[in-house]
Every structure is written in C-alpha cells, then in structure tokens.
Design a protein that fits this description.
Helices cover 47% and strands 13% of the residues. By secondary structure, the chain is α/β, with parallel strands linked by helices.
C-alpha cells in the first residue's frame, strides 16, 4: 500500500483533521512506538514526532517535562528518526513529521538530516524556530526529496501571513494564541478572527495548535479551521500514566486509556458533523 503524502492525508480528512504530537522517548522507545500506533487507531491522519530539546522556547511546562524525561533516557534526533521504520514495521501508515528545534538539526547538518529523514521513511519536517526568511536551504532539500516542510504562522506574524501561506506545504500550522504550548480553558475571540484570516489566505488545509484540550474547543473550531494539532493534552495523559507505560504488563491498559481519551476529545456530535 502506497503511503499518502502529508498534503494528500490532510486534504482527504474530514473534520477534524487530527494531528497528534508525541515526544520521542517519553517514557521510553517502546512506548513511543506503541503511542504512535495508538494515535493511528484513535483516528490520527498525520503524526508529529517531537525531538526532545533542552531549551524548547515554544513549549509549556508539560512538554518541557516530557523533553527532559526523554533526554534522560538517552533520546536524540538520530534515535528518534530511527524509530520511524520500527513504527512502519508495526503497521503505521500515516505520514510522520519530525518536529524539532533548529539547533539539533544544525548540529547534524541539514543535508544529513534530510537524507536521514528520507532513508527512515519520514514524510516531513517542522522547525518552529527557523524563520521563513532563513529556511531556503531546508526548503530546497525537502522539495528535492519530496518531503513536506511545514510552515507555522502565529498572531505575531500577521504582516507576513500571505507570504508564509503562499509557501505552505502539506498543511499550515496555525498557532492559536500568543505564549507557549499548553492546555487552555478557552481561546480569546481574536483567536478565531486570526484563524479565519489564515484560512482565507491558505491553499492548504489549516490545522490549529497550542492549547486544544477539550471536545468543546474542537467543536468551536469547525468552520474556521480544517483540523487540530494536540500535543500537551496527550503528553499530560502520558505523564500521568508513566509508570504503567514503563511496565510491560500494564502498558496495554495505559495505551487503551490514552486512546479512549483522544477519541473522546475528538468526538464531534452528529449535529456538528459535516
């Protein structure tokens, strides 16, 4: 079976396009592989595989703790990328995007990084701290290897919105509000206005991230966005089940609990479905 590209997966999804984020190596390699499979079972269309980093500028407390746990367990950029073939062997068919800050990529070397992504069956990359104006080399290499270079747009980049949207590949990651990642009780009204502006400027599906943690938020975004990116809420659940995930005999029950949690989070009542 031929895998879909990131754009094909995004465009073929009915609402909500679901893109979960999981941190590679938290709580361990085996759990990361199983979490990827669990996300696919729960309805994920695309998977973001996060690379733990010691200075994650955009991450809130949950993902910071997750990254630190993964680093303590020896996870690295290379080790994370090499998990993808293992996921494929288990039956993962959805596209996988590597989510990494720029420093680990720069240390590896951009050309080596892209070659490693291609060799290990990844489908794209998202580097949140690499500005569009400095991403030409990365973009050239990803295009050459048919990998998606995912663009990110935030309220602070509204003056550059059209330029960023014009170069977006696969889907456009729309940051819902200012600040770091983490669950939020509600989005301010201006967040919805901004999301609608992004949607109007984008030729690829728009997925909203940063703060989505309730079914009500997923429902309210319908009509403005094409989908949701959920990371902190999932990794907070992983954190709460860390002991069970590390225990082989208890891992399956923990994974089932996470799957049910995600399915409930994405449940859109029939009156809201398209």
């Amino acid at each position: 079976m031929t895998r879909q590209t990131v754009r094909e997966a995004a465009e073929s999804a009915s609402y909500p396009l679901f893109i979960p984020f999981i941190m590679a190596g938290d709580p361990n390699k085996e759990s990361t592989i199983e979490l990827a499979m669990t996300m696919q079972k729960a309805g994920a269309h695309i998977l973001e595989l996060g690379i733990p980093y010691s200075d994650p500028l955009a991450d809130g407390p949950v993902l910071q703790r997750s990254a630190l746990r993964a680093l303590k367990h020896g996870m690295s950029l290379t080790a994370a990328i090499e998990l993808i073939p293992e996921m494929r062997k288990r039956g993962l068919t959805i596209p996988v995007i590597i989510f990494s800050y720029y420093n680990p990529v720069l240390r590896m070397g951009i050309k080596t990084f892209i070659e490693k992504l291609k060799d290990n069956e990844a489908d794209g990359v998202l580097i949140p701290d690499l500005p569009l104006e400095e991403s030409e080399e990365l973009s050239t290499l990803t295009k050459k290897e048919n990998l998606a270079n995912i663009s990110l747009v935030a309220p602070t980049s509204s003056t550059r919105l059209e330029k960023i949207a014009a170069q977006a590949e696969g889907f456009l990651y729309c940051v819902s509000s200012l600040g770091v990642t983490g669950t939020r009780d509600e989005f301010p009204p201006e967040a919805y206005t901004f999301i609608e502006e992004v949607k109007a400027s984008s030729e690829v599906p728009v997925a909203v991230g940063f703060g989505i943690s309730t079914p009500e938020q997923v429902q309210r975004l319908q009509g403005s966005a094409d989908g949701v990116i959920i990371g902190s809420a999932i990794m907070k659940k992983v954190e709460g089940l860390q002991a069970e995930l590390e225990h082989e005999a208890k891992r399956r029950d923990a994974l089932n609990s996470i799957q049910q949690y995600v399915e409930d989070l994405l449940a859109v009542p029939s009156s809201h479905q398209q």
